[in-house]
Structure prediction request, 308 residues.
Amino acid sequence: MSVLIAASAVDLGGGMQVRRALPTQRRRLIGAWCFLDHFGPADVSRTAGMRVGPHPHIGLQTLTWLLRGEVLHRDSLGSVQRIEPGAVNLMTAGRGISHSEESPSPHSADLHGVQFWIALPESARRIAPAFDHHPRVPVVQRDGLRVTVLAGEWLGEQSPARIHTPLMGASIAAAAGASAVLPLRPDFEYGAIVTHGEAFLGTPGDAQAQRLEPGTLLYLGSGHRELAVTAGNGDAGIVLVGGEPFGESVLMWWNFVARTRAELTQASRDWNDKAAYLGEVHGYDGPRLVAPLPPWMEPGPAEVAKHP
Prediction:
């Protein structure tokens, strides 16, 4: 049976608000997808827009998809990449990377998009970090829907994004009143959010289709072969993610994905101590972020002095 889960509101700083659909208390993972932030639509015509200073990641991949506007990515590998609608940025943290995200200057008046994290399996979570920019990813037109395959394989199309577990992610643009039935894999679990407008989503096991608006995650579970999608009276945007249930225990703290508290504690300390393996971002004209201490961690005297 499908479950509706309210996203949480998170302030990224600089007035940028996001709706965090994953993780929540009711759902931590959908396949290997462990994080789903929906930001905007935001009017950034009179502001600096997005300003997320240098910060680290371990044990995951980040995937960025924009619906409007642009973001400038910098990372500790030396990558400097502007992303716009239609393109995908995929950053693989592996054993450690750092990056910043900002609206370029000048930038568009509107900013709207989604950022996902994918937990890396044990076999890949310590690989070398990497960054890939894909200016185009596959698009399928079906019954009034425009489906962009962001990751994995779906509807006969394969995204070029390099992933490490069986999963899929797609962005669906639906014209007003459009309706279609899309195939699902019964061995995958799925979840969906609406980025704008309203849509009705249902599977054969549902008594009726669920109405979705921005701010809610629909967890569909697994065992389904079809998904019925219908847009409301206006155009709608939908993001669908799915994957094989992740068979490993995952712990998350701040920007880190690991398996033990000790790993998360060490990563937090390492970033604040400027450990070389997490790298350094050049060119961002602001301060690096400070890793908050995990709640189970007892700070030493030096850490208390540095981070009161």
